[in-house]
Specification:
With about 110 residues, this protein is mainly alpha-helical. It is built from four helices and two strands; from the N terminus they run H-E-E-H-H-H.
Length: about 110
């Protein structure tokens, strides 16, 4: 499930390691399968999903990835967490910046 935290982390990763402004799209066409992938939870915070899972006692599937928790994404998460200590609305502001592209004043 892709959620807002994934959106912000992907944005930060693109900025820090790819020198570009990029984020997860709410809808992506997968031409190999000829289907659309939608991300209905993209604006929902991870903590709200975790709370829902806990409240309804839903099963959690552990990641079997050997790199789980040791990635550049973890670093991006830490950067965002730090920014939020300086400005409580940092996540909300970043989300707005990503979604309101008409406000960009780039070269």
């Amino acid at each position: 499930i892709y959620h807002r935290d994934d959106l912000l982390e992907t944005f930060m990763l693109s900025l820090m390691y790819e020198s570009r402004l990029n984020a997860l799209a709410t809808k992506t066409y997968l031409d190999r399968k000829e289907v659309y992938q939608i991300r209905p939870f993209i604006y929902l915070e991870e903590k709200h999903i975790k709370s829902f899972v806990k409240r309804y006692n839903l099963p959690i599937v552990k990641s079997f990835c050997s790199m789980d928790g040791e990635t550049k994404r973890t670093e991006a998460k830490e950067v965002i967490r730090y920014m939020a200590t300086k400005n409580k609305k940092a996540r909300e502001i970043m989300t707005t910046a990503i979604t309101k592209t008409k406000n960009y004043n780039l070269w």
